[in-house]
Design brief:
Blueprint: H1 20-25, H2 43-62, H3 70-84, H4 88-106
């Protein structure tokens, strides 16, 4: 599968699976092979395996995961830290320290 294009992953559980409508709308179907004494994967495990392969394939084809520019990626990361860190001051301090370390490394 070529994961470098926009892709939606729909994962169904082992009891109900995926709806007939979702199956009909799908361009492609895939399954996660199992080896050994395993009857089935938990749906979150199956989704994790698919996502791992999607990211690996995307990086190998495009050289990066995602389509954000480095600047957009830094902005998104900063916004995430601001929402999820206990202290905004800590985030700002860590960012400044990294910038200073990068500057020193370049000298």
């Amino acid at each position: 599968m070529d994961w470098s294009h926009p892709t939606a992953i729909v994962v169904g559980n082992e009891t109900m699976g995926i709806s007939d409508v979702a199956l009909k709308l799908s361009d492609m179907h895939c399954s996660v092979p199992m080896k050994g004494m395993v009857d089935s994967f938990n749906v979150s495990v199956a989704a994790g395996i698919l996502m791992h392969h999607a990211v690996y394939d995307r990086v190998s084809r495009l050289g990066q995961n995602g389509d954000l520019t480095p600047e957009e990626n830094r902005i998104l990361l900063a916004e995430f830290y601001l929402r999820h860190r206990e202290s905004t001051a800590t985030v700002i301090h860590e960012y400044a320290k990294r910038k200073a370390n990068n500057l020193v490394a370049k000298l």
